Amino acid sequence: MLKELKDRSSDSGQGEDINITTDILIFSYKRFHKSQPYAEVAFEAANAAIAGGVSVLEIVMSTPGVFEVLQQLVKEHPKMTLGVGTVLRIEDAKTAINAGAKFLMSPAIVKDIMDHVQGGEVLYIPGAMTPTEVLRWTNLIGGHPRTSGA
């Protein structure tokens, strides 16, 4: 599978770097492993990425068995930085943390998740697209926006 990922990476003009994304996991499943369960394919793709030198890996919530895949990866690669992406519900955030996630990503600011991880060891990376969203997030965490050179 590593060769397949490298070939995919080379085809996309990214050189030797391997960027594991949902596209690659889905691509791997549909093209190479039609008879395997999706969670197993995700696990194999993640292991191939790790073998190829990836040091930070996000498993998206849409991956069937996401928490089981994460838990197994944490067990086999305890020093890796593994996290879960597209986390929108506090229940999923708690389950991901219990499974060993070191970071959580959301496409938007989810205050319940932010409150839950505050002061803990799990990094929460909420998404924001507009200046209003960035300001709202900054106000929620009690910080002040910074400008370059400040």
From TrEMBL:
Stored InterPro entries: Aldlse_KDPG_KHG (IPR000887), Aldolase_TIM (IPR013785)
Domain of life: Eukaryota
Keywords: Carbohydrate metabolism, Lyase
Protein's UniProt keywords contain Lyase: yes
Keyword Secreted applies: no
Residues spanning the membrane: none
Recorded GO MF terms: lyase activity
Pathway field: Carbohydrate acid metabolism
One Pfam family named in its UniProt record: Aldolase
Subunit description: Homotrimer.
Family of the protein in this entry: Belongs to the KHG/KDPG aldolase family.
Protein name: KHG/KDPG aldolase
Source organism per UniProt: Trifolium subterraneum (Subterranean clover)
